[in-house]
Amino acid sequence: MQSTLPPSSSAIERSGGPTDPTGDEQLRRGIIATDVSRGAAWLLTLLFLGAIYAVPLAQAYLEKSEGEESPLADLVRRPPTAENLRQLEKGIEDASYVKAWVQPRVQLLLTRLGRVGNKLAVVGHGGWLYYTPGVLHVGGPGFLEPEVLRGRAREALDAGQEPLHPDPRPAIFAFQQALAQRGIRLVVLPMPDKAGIEPGPLLGRDGRVEMAQNVDYDRFLSELRAAGVAVLDARRSVPEPRTEPLFLAQDTHYTPGYMERIAADLGQLVIGLGVLPKLAEKPVMRGVPQQASRVGDLVDMLKLPDDQSLFQAESVVVHQVQDAAGTPWEPDESADVLLLGDSFTNIFTLEGMGWGNASGLAPHLALALGRPLDVIAQNDSGAFATRQALARELKAGQDRLAGKRVVVWEFAARELSVGDWIPLDLPTPESAGAP
């Protein structure tokens, strides 16, 4: 009979294992023996090459079939500067068919199952969405902290961008002085962020949650007032008690009701300056209720599939300001009050934003003042965009400030943490410069 006893320890050392001196020598030489059949090797090689070349080949085929020019052409058409390479990278991302198909579907799955947002939108509770820069502004470090200001300026330079002006105070004070030379009063209206006014759904708490704001916000407002700048703190327009949300659940902007309260308080502040003359004939204006409905801009920022059903359109009642004949309100360049504003001014008025027209901050400020109103408004970059537009008009010889007595400057408060507060020179009127 043949023996079935286990091999001795000396036999194991000779055939391999942790104590096999032959195996130790191979490991010391970086050799790990792997047996792969020829068929498996070919299969793995073909899969690897397919993974590497399938996407760019499919992209090239689709661009060819659609008659589109590849963004890669810029690689040889433009010098390889840092800015050009950034634009090339963005062009490749934007033109990618694979990304356009995969990203919305993956984002929808992540948002539905895990309340996962993206770099622009934060997913709160109960269907609420928040704008990421606004959340970071409210919960982040003080925007006036010297180290924060130096860090933002340094970060822009390191990225190869133009020098950044992170401190809002010099630009605001310079604007105030330029207007004062023309006998015009400046009123500043920083629009609080949704994360500060409605923090409850962001934190997942029901019931009343105290408003929040950046730690430097009150100091900033105090410094403006101390320098003689009139300021409306929109937090004081929050009703007590609250009976309805003050911001749209899926949008970065306020509700029509909160906007109208701010417009009324702003009108009282402007009238209280005592610089507006009485009008010989006050224009007749009235607010007419209308329905407006759409999904918010934060849903757009999530870049979900067009047929998504996770977020339904939100409906609100706006009050369109009309004259006695029922004509929707229009700005008037001859008015003695000028409103500079961003998307908080445009929403409910700029029809392309989808929330109605002639129903926003400007017409309701005109209604509160009982007089015509001039407007320069541009979405985004409220730190400098509207001042820049005004300066361009003045330098082009179109004196948009002629006859003005008050300029209201509205901008999103988050611009205090992320905006570029470029100092701008406004041409001095000849009468102000004369001895």
Architecture overview:
Pfam families: ALGX. Residues 1-25 are annotated as: Disordered. Residues 160-412 form the AlgX/AlgJ SGNH hydrolase-like domain. This protein has 435 residues and is of the alpha/beta class. It is 43% helix and 11% strand. It has helices at residues 9-15, 21-28, 38-66, 74-77, 82-95, 97-114, 132-139, 146-158, 168-180, 194-197, 200-203, 217-226, 256-272, 297-302, 343-346, 361-369, 385-395, 415-418, 430-433; strands at residues 121-123, 129-131, 185-191, 230-231, 286-294, 314-322, 337-341, 374-377, 406-412. The protein has a five-stranded parallel beta sheet, with helices on both faces. β1 (121-123) and β2 (129-131) form a beta hairpin. α13 (256-272) crosses α16. The longest helix has 29 residues, at 38-66. The N and C termini lie far apart (127 Å). The model is unreliable at 1-5 and 9-13 (pLDDT under 50).
